[in-house]
Amino acid sequence: MRTSKQTRKTKETEITADLSLDGGAVTVSTGIGFFDHMLTAFAVHGGFGLNLSAKGDLFVDCHHTVEDTGIVLGKAFAEALGDKGGIARYGSFFIPMDEALAFTSLDISGRPYLVFDANFSQARVGEFDTCMTEEFLRAFAVNSGITLHCRVLYGTNAHHEIEAVFKSLGHALHQAVSVQKGTLSTKGIL
């Protein structure tokens, strides 16, 4: 069963995530409306079951909550994938959102890395600082062991630009975690 339950509690945040790589209900509550919308879109478009609850020091700003959510979700993916045997490993996907276009390409390799190329059209969407998109993705990539490349090719609305990133990430991960025969590596392991 490709599932994981992760909990993280610090002086800044308290986060719990239940993840199923093979689908299920999606419920997200972080206290940041736009971030909830993005995580929900990510899970739905990835075909993942996700029950995520985060409480953080939002009186400071959204940084700790967003970054720590990336840590927890990354660890959940790493645990749910186990030894990573029998997965497609690679995934890539373009998503258009009205005037915006984003692309994600990834390798579930055990070698975490983030390449992020985006200049968002606005600094904030609701209570979400757009610069936190990169922080979330970095925390997610490092803690999941994924080589992750994300790029916003163009757009004029930050909501659309970021939503295209999260949806393309979901679709690319859906491809990469799909079950295949054998281990896709010349080394024999990932």
Automatic annotation (TrEMBL):
Pathway: Amino-acid biosynthesis; L-histidine biosynthesis; L-histidine from 5-phospho-alpha-D-ribose 1-diphosphate: step 6/9. One of its GO terms (cellular component) is cytoplasm. Keywords: Amino-acid biosynthesis, Cytoplasm, Histidine biosynthesis, Lyase. It comes from the Bacteria. GO terms for biological process: L-histidine biosynthetic process. Transmembrane segments: none annotated. It catalyses: D-erythro-1-(imidazol-4-yl)glycerol 3-phosphate = 3-(imidazol-4-yl)-2-oxopropyl phosphate + H2O. GO terms for molecular function: imidazoleglycerol-phosphate dehydratase activity. Its main location: cytoplasm. InterPro entries: IGPD_sf, ImidazoleglycerolP_deHydtase, ImidazoleglycerP_deHydtase_CS, Ribosomal_Su5_D2-typ_SF. It is found in: Cytoplasm. Its EC number is 4.2.1.19. It is an enzyme of class 4 (lyase). NCBIfam families: PRK00951.2-1, PRK00951.2-4. Belongs to the imidazoleglycerol-phosphate dehydratase family. This is Imidazoleglycerol-phosphate dehydratase.
